[in-house]
Amino acid sequence: MPTSLTPQQAWEQLKAGNQRFVDGTVDHPHQDAGWRAALAESQSPHAVIFGCSDSRLAAEIIFDVGLGDVFVIRTAGQVIDDAVLGSLQFAIEEIQVPLIIILGHDNCGAVTAACEAMDTAKMPKSFMRSLVERIMPSVMAARAKGINDVNGTVKEHTDQMVHRVVDTSYAVSKAVNEGRTAVMGVTYSLSDGSVQVGDTVGPVKPPAQSTAPLPKHT
Question: I want to staple 185 with a disulfide (CB 3.0 to 4.6 A). Which of 158, 170, 180, 195 is the partner?
């Protein structure tokens, strides 16, 4: 059975969990044996978190959630491929998740590689090239806005991916147009654990927060 939460309610739960994580007052919900057994036959997560594969960006930890709460997809640099689109379609059509978070983070290695490729006009070899090629449009969009640092580019890339997911996936676009799902760009700070909201598409309004930029990569 799908969750009864609206996109707004789903975001408020995640934001509250992240605040507990930042404050060091985590609840570690839904991680006991009884809850595990209750989920054996079905799932009803209240959000998809499509984020970077970086080992420091464990979605369930930074949002203080547990088993069955979030449907997690991860690729380096949160780049889209057919497997990601299929996973998103499953989450939207089969389990009717009301919120998609595109989760980036500061000092991202994949975005750094794309920035370096832009600066040196030299692409990395083998399959790393595939990652960089998928991030390069975001680097170009950032440069067009006068953004040259890695962390500014991370935010631009996260925002770009919000719109790319909606534009590329018919299932996501349909759910957003029908008011069933929202897509939100979120950037995570490795140093303090906080999240900063970027572009949002769909019926959700993030709480007011600081608009200070992430610290520059050194």
Answer: 158
- What token pair was written down for 128? 């790393």
Residue 15 corresponds to which tokens in the numbers above? 């934001």
Distance CA 139, CA 181 (A): 28
Would strands 70-74 and 47-51 be described as parallel, antiparallel, or unpaired?
A: parallel
**Geometric angle at alpha carbon 60, from 13 and 214, rounded to 5°:** 80
Considering only CA atoms, which of 85, 117, 103 is closest in space to residue 47? 103
CA dihedral 84, 86, 88, 89 (to 10 degrees): 160
Residue 211 confidence (pLDDT):
39
Kindly give the pairing relationship between strand 195-201 and strand 182-188: antiparallel
| CA atoms of 178 and 133, how far apart (whole Å) | 32
CA distance 68 to 181: 18
Tokens encoding 146? 């006068």
**C-alpha neighbours within 13 Å on the C-beta side of residue 47:** 30
Q: How many other C-beta atoms are found inside a 10 Å radius of the C-beta of residue 32? A: 12
Look at residue 50 and give its three-state secondary structure.
strand
- Residue % of the chain over a pLDDT of 90: 87
Check: CB of residue 50 under 8 Å from CB of residue 99: no
Class of domain 7-105+165-201: alpha beta
pLDDT of residue 90 exceeding 60: yes
